[in-house]
Amino acid sequence: MSVNDDGQLSSSDSFWEVGRYMRTVKRCDNGYQLCNHLRKLIEERNEIEKKYAAMLTEWTKKWNNFLDKGPEYGTTLGAWKGVLTEADGVAELHNAMAEKMMDDVHTKIKFWQKENYHKSMMHFKETKEFEDNFRKAQKPWAKRLAKVVATKKDYHVACKTEKSTANQENNSRADSSVSQEQLKKLQDKLKKCQQEVENTREKYTAALNDLNSYNAKYIEDMTEVYKRSQDFEQKRIDFFKKIFFQLHACLDLSVESRFSQIYTNLHSTIGNVDPNKDLKWWSSTHGVDMGMNWPAFEEYSPELQSISKRAKSNLGSADGGIMITSIKHSREDSYGSYSEQPSAPPPQQQQQQPQNYKTQSSTNSYASAPRNDMDSRARSESPDGENPFGDGDMYDENEEGEEPPSAGWMVRALYDYVRAEDDELEFKAGDVFLQVALEDEMGWCRGKKGEDIGFYPKNYVERI
Fold first, then answer.
1. Which of 18, 165, 189, 356 is the most buried (most CB within 10 A)?
2. Looking at the Swiss-Prot or TrEMBL record, what is one Pfam family this protein matches (predicted)?
């Protein structure tokens, strides 16, 4: 600290200068703001971790969809999947990291901040206390300093005046035009100036001695307040150190057992890739080691004819009939207005029943004849003029020549059958119901199950 010739304090950054303690006071406010900034830092890192985890999850979902539909197979597919499993595991860890930072670190900062910084109307209570205590400790010394500055200024002014008067008096003695009376006045003025210099010098020296004698007390009082501010700041720094260690514990995945296990598993999964095993699987599933049902000669059997909706739709004539032994017959002819055939039998039957009726002639003269004309036309073309199918209905007897009982036969379903048309009977394997009409040449029977009556394929049931 120094005082210039104009009596003003020169610029100095020393803590001991008047008012320079405000930097230490402001540090208290800065501590509160630093808590806010640290919380903000953790919040932003939390968002980064969550976004990273979400991106990893979306990435694994995309590539899992590719692998599920893609051409990769076997143990090599397992390696692909292992990389995605690693990403899912890392995403889970980073989500856990984000939550832990908020729960274990962010919450503690907020609580500590609230406990150590107490807001008043304009300031924090702690800031106001430090400022008042520093001002109180500095005030006595500042007053003495102000007196020193004032007395120094008076002394310097007196010295300046005395020097100017002495020059005038010295010049007057050498100038013959100056009268003795004028010279005497200058000499009296010089004496007064010299006396003023002595008086101001004594006051300046006394004020300076008084200031210096108070320096020890000033240093003691200011140091006491400063120590309290240091203790307060040390508490903040110690807390921040603890918080940074906790943050480190959240961020350091190298000590997380699950993290190391993820890569142990990935390494093991990649090590399980076995080219020979994969190629052997391919050969047995898609290659030369596959079994084959080589074609063999099959004797024709009418009983193996397929009953399928597709066959009916492809082979029907204009009114939905099927040509059999040059005689057109359809379900409408046998049972009335029913026009649809049943859906295909179970796959195991469908494979064994060639659709022989597809190869039969579709140009026979009976293709479009209604059933009520069939008997007469067949009878007229017969050598003896009789109906080749006998008198009466062509379906009056079953294959064994049995007459149908008045109540019908009880049958048991061998397979599930789902109706394809409204006039069909639906049932499940094991259901028992009544057959009320004989089978027609297309393999359709009519049955009654509860209150429902409809058509069904004969090869779906067995008589009991």
1. 165
2. SH3_9
What are the residues whose beta carbons fall under 8 Å from the beta carbon of 455, sequence distance 6 or more? 331, 335, 338, 342, 423, 424, 425, 444, 445, 446, 447
Q: Is the dihedral of CA 163, 169, 173, 174 positive or negative?
A: positive
Nearest-angstrom CA–CA distance, 368 and 391 = 22
- The answer to whether the beta carbons of residues 336 and 455 sit under 8 Å apart is no
Token pair, residue 14, equals 């020393």
184, amino acid identity: K
φ and ψ at residue 403, rounded to 5 degrees: -80, 135
Q: Which residue has the tokens 């990435």?
A: 59
Q: What burial letters (b/e) apply to 89-109, b meaning 16+ CB within 10 Å?
A: bbbebbbbbbebbbeebbeeb
Tens of pLDDT, residue by residue over 438-461, are: 888 888 999 999 889 999 999 999
Chain center to CA of 378: 79
Residue 428, CB-side half-sphere exposure with 13 Å CA sphere: 0
pLDDT, one tens digit per residue, over 143-169 is 999 999 999 999 999 999 999 999 988
Across the chain, mean pLDDT equals 80
Confidence of residue 77 (pLDDT cuts 50, 70, 90): very high
> Of 97-106, 147-156, 197-206, 252-261, which gets the smallest average pLDDT?
252-261
Residue 255 burial (10 A CB sphere; 0-12, 13-18, 19+) = exposed
Tokens representing 67 are: 């692998």
- pLDDT tens per residue, range 278-320: 999 999 988 999 988 889 988 887 665 544 443 343 333 344 4
Other CB atoms within a 10 A radius of the CB of residue 424 amount to: 21
Structure tokens, 6 = 């104009």
In angstroms, how far is CA 204 from the centroid of its own chain? 77
Residues 259/93, Cβ–Cβ less than 8 Å: yes
